Amino acid sequence: METLYFFGMLTAAIVISRTPLRYPFQWMETFFHELSHGIACILTFGRIHRITLEFNGAGCCSTYGGWRIPTLLAGYAGAVTWGAVIYLAGWTLSTTEDIFLLNVLIGALAFSLIFWMRNLKTILITVIMMTVFWVPTLIPHSNLPAYAIEFYGIYIVQSAITAPLALIDGKHVGDGADLADITLIIPEGVWIALWFTYAILTTFWLWQVTIPPQERLTEYLHWLPLL
Fold it and tell me: Which of 140, 171, 213, 220 has a Cα-to-Cα distance from 119 of 20 to 30 A?
């Protein structure tokens, strides 16, 4: 049943990603992508100048200082990680804790809006995302907050699976191209493959940790330690 639920939620996210309903959730993935760039920059002693979001799902995090390699790596990897954490939170937390988490996410958006967002388009997109996070809190005595959090998380994860593949366009533009230019010896395709693989493995891990232990594939791989 848990496997059916997980893949049902994943399928719903994929279906919605093909419709106009995708935009608020696509913006979430973009926001966490750009925020991850910013956090990595701050952790390597840089600072965020501005976060910009576009209606089509594009975004940009302008930074000063910091270490470029982890800052660039953090975008796609960070979005997947944020999505996984959010999904697991919806899976494991109580209703009261779900409401608290939604308020924390609203707070994170509000904090980013105050300190790093400047243009009207980005502000409008952020307010819409805050509203999407806020709506489930209106029905606290139900499963809606948990279902909403799980959906937000799994949507971000599945979106982050395909996002790096958009860099395969021959234009040599984006995080992968920048990393290739910095490292000189590691081409853009390797970075794209790294992000894609991480996203796939994270999705597999999410599935495995949310089903009963006796149903996990590791139960059928007892011979692995012998290798």
Answer: 171
Residue 225 burial (10 A CB sphere; 0-12, 13-18, 19+): exposed
111-166 per-position pLDDT tens digit? 999 999 999 999 999 999 999 999 999 998 899 999 999 999 999 999 999 999 99
- Residue identified by tokens 């996070």 is 133
Nearest-angstrom CA–CA distance, 70 and 225: 32
Q: What is the DSSP string of 56-100?
A: TS-EEEEEEES-HHHHHHHHHHHHHHHHHHHHHHHHHS-HHHHHH
The domain spans of the chain are: 2-53+65-164+201-212
CA gap 135, 22 in Å, rounded? 17
∠38-28-138 over CA atoms, to 5°? Answer: 125
Tokens of 55: 């209606």
